[in-house]
Amino acid sequence: MPTLASCKSLAICLLFAAAYAVLPAQATSLSDDVDLRIETFDEIERLFKALRFKVVNMRSDDQEGAVTYSDEIVGLAYRLPGLFEENSPRQLFPQSRARPEIWERPERYNYLLNQFLDNLEQIDELLREGSMTEAGRKIDETAKNCRRCHDVFRYR
Ligand code: HEC
Hints:
- With 156 residues, the chain is mainly α.
- 77% of the residues lie in helices and 0% in strands.
- The radius of gyration is 22 Å and the shape is globular.
- The structure holds heme C.
């Protein structure tokens, strides 16, 4: 059955071709992940500042507007854990400010990242139930999460 045999080897050939096609794609995709996490943090910073200004500085009672911000922030923040899974410090990706300590002390890093995510969820909940003052307090508390993590895990 020569037809079946050649078909089989063609399948194997295609498999190898696919594997080779994927390898360089993976190498660039890690760099894409690094770019995406930088972009994501920039966007989180912009929205978090806007939310803080609205709720804490202006004491705005525009609950709907505040929830729109916090929803977006939560959505963006949930991208983050997946973008730090592979070892990708500044030593490997010059565009990054990530310190190697992220992958040397993953328990500590993940603890801080989870705490950040929890706080963002709580802000969202407080805003949804209309507890604007409580939400403001939580926003101030969460702002300290940024500093605490950057001090150890991000280059200046
Ligand atoms: C659990 C740790 C952690 C928390 C919490 C955290 N960050 Fe970051 N942040 C990082 C790391 C690590 C980088 C560097 C990412 C990179 O460059 O690869 C970063 C980068 C950034 C950047 C710049 C992107 C760049 O690298 O040039 C901004 C802006 C930023 N963070 C803002 C914030 C703000 C605002 C908060 C809080 C609302 C926050 N971050 C909370 C770890 C954290």
